[in-house]
Amino acid sequence: MYGLTEKQFRLFFERAERKKEITGTNLLVQLETRLDNVAYRLGFVNSRSQGRQLVQHNHLLVNGQKVNIPSYQVKTGDVVEVKDKSRKIQSISDSLAAVVRRGVPQWLELEKENLKGTVKNLPVRDDLTMPIQEQLIVELYSK
């Protein structure tokens, strides 16, 4: 779903396992707060792979600084916006028109007219509506 290789996914799992909270929830929160996924959730793109490309091609700013690393972890209070020069890209406009249908998660706030989104807080398990059984992932990777 998130477009990661096995090695990248294992690194995310190991990082989630080191934290004190529930490993499965930590893993999902880390995956959701990747910059390419946040671009998808805000509606700047129609898929996570498009989000990855948008980030790698320097179309996004985080707190006014350019970031071209798709795995960049956003934090509470971070502002993600489309660069001024990139606002004319047709696919971004089309994606924003479709965001009404898909909706923006509660943990994000979108300023549609400014092409800007803010991370209000980190997602909790209830905010993640995808049909993922994280317990099975934890069992598999804990071996």
Briefly summarize what is shown.
This protein has helices at residues 6-18, 23-32, 35-42, 48-56, 90-102, 134-141, and strands at residues 60-62, 65-66, 79-82, 108-111, 116-119. With 143 residues, it is an alpha+beta fold. It has one domain: RNA-binding S4 domain (Structural Genomics Hypothetical 15.5 Kd Protein In mrcA-pckA Intergenic Region, Chain A, Roll), CATH 3.10.290.
Description of the molecule:
By secondary structure, this protein is an alpha+beta fold. It has one domain: Structural Genomics Hypothetical 15.5 Kd Protein In mrcA-pckA Intergenic Region, Chain A. The chain contains 6 helices and 5 strands, in the order ααααβββαββα. It has a 5-stranded antiparallel beta sheet with strand order 2-1-3-5-4, with helices on one face. Strand 1 and strand 2 form a beta hairpin. Helix 1 crosses helix 2 and helix 3 packs across helix 4. The radius of gyration is 15 Å and the shape is globular. The two termini are 22 Å apart.
